[in-house]
Every structure is written in structure tokens, then in C-alpha cells.
Design a protein that fits this description.
This protein has 166 residues and is mainly alpha-helical. The protein has one domain (15-163): Up-down Bundle (Ferritin), CATH 1.20.1260.10. The chain has helices spanning 19-45, 49-77, 87-102, 105-133, 137-163. This is DUF2383 domain-containing protein. Pfam families: DUF2383 (PF09537). Residues 25-132 form the DUF2383 domain.
Length: 166
């Protein structure tokens, strides 16, 4: 069965994205930006050096993904990537803050890791969905390259969670 993806080997930045691909790429970038902001804010609020390092690394992973894909979006959309905070991002941040303020340290960590795992799962699901739906073969390849970063990030989160015995 022939794929509907355009897989000709042209330089990736010389091809125009379809409006649909640009919209899908934008959606994925917004999920990454939500994650970056949540991780940065959570890192700033913790005194635990191990957790702070993980959160900073997670934010850095999101930044790398955004920086790798943002030029593609901006080139073909003709506009700067702008990110208003999503409702989902705000709710996740709110849950994390409530857990930190009103729970015991163990309960706060449990809420934090629960929300961060949901964020990681959402990012991975969005990435897989975007790759399946994208029309441009080259863009799908670029997105696929980001899976490794996101999976490594997800694995680090699970490893640290295990050390806290949550």
C-alpha cells in the first residue's frame, strides 16, 4: 500500500508544509512548551538537588525539542511561535503547587510525580499521534528523531520516582 507521505529527498527547509502539517506541528510544540514551563517552575520550587536536576534536565529536553522543530514551523508559517499557556498546562501546574503547599513531603512528591508522569505520557502520545498524522515524510522523520529525547526523559523521571519509593 502506498504511503500518502511525500518522501522525496529534498532539503527539508525548502519544502512548504501543508496547513494541516503546520497546525499539527504547532500543537506538538505547544505541548512541549507547556512541559518546559512546568518543569522550570517546579525546579525553581524544590530544594531537593536530585529532583531539581531532573526537573531542569526535563525542561532542557523540551527546549531541545522545541529548538529543533521551531525553525521548521516559523519558516513555513511566516510567524514567530507564540505560546499562550494552555488550560491543561495551567491545571497541571496548579495540581503540583497544591500538592507542594498542602501535603506532607511524601504526599507532595507523590502528586508531583503523578502530574509529571501524566505530562510525559501526554507528550509521548501527542508525538506519536503527530507522526502518524503528518503528511510530510521529512517532517515525520524530524519528529521521530525527537522520540529518543522524550523517551530518555520519561525513563529518567521513572528512575528518580523509584528512588523516592512512591
Amino acid at each position: 500500500m502506498a504511503s500518502s507521505r511525500n518522501t522525496q529527498e529534498e532539503p527539508m527547509y525548502h519544502r512548504t508544509l501543508s496547513a494541516t502539517d503546520a497546525r499539527r506541528l504547532h500543537g506538538f510544540l505547544m505541548v512541549c512548551e507547556d512541559g518546559r514551563q512546568i518543569y522550570e517552575e517546579a525546579a525553581a520550587q524544590t530544594d531537593d538537588p536530585g529532583l531539581q536536576k531532573l526537573l531542569t534536565d526535563q525542561a532542557s529536553t523540551r527546549s531541545k525539542t522545541i529548538n529543533a522543530l521551531k525553525p521548521r514551523y516559523e519558516l513555513h508559517s511566516g510567524e514567530q511561535l507564540h505560546h499562550p499557556r494552555s488550560v491543561q498546562g495551567l491545571l497541571q501546574q496548579w495540581c503540583i503547587e497544591l500538592g507542594q503547599r498542602f501535603g506532607s513531603e511524601h504526599a507532595a512528591l507523590s502528586v508531583l510525580f503523578s502530574q509529571l508522569e501524566k505530562l510525559e505520557d501526554h507528550t509521548l502520545n501527542m508525538l506519536y499521534k503527530t507522526i502518524r498524522q503528518i503528511e510530510s515524510g521529512l517532517l515525520a522523520k524530524e519528529l521521530s528523531e525527537q522520540i529518543v529525547l522524550v523517551l530518555e526523559s520519561h525513563h529518567r523521571l521513572k528512575q528518580l520516582k523509584a528512588t523516592y519509593r512512591l
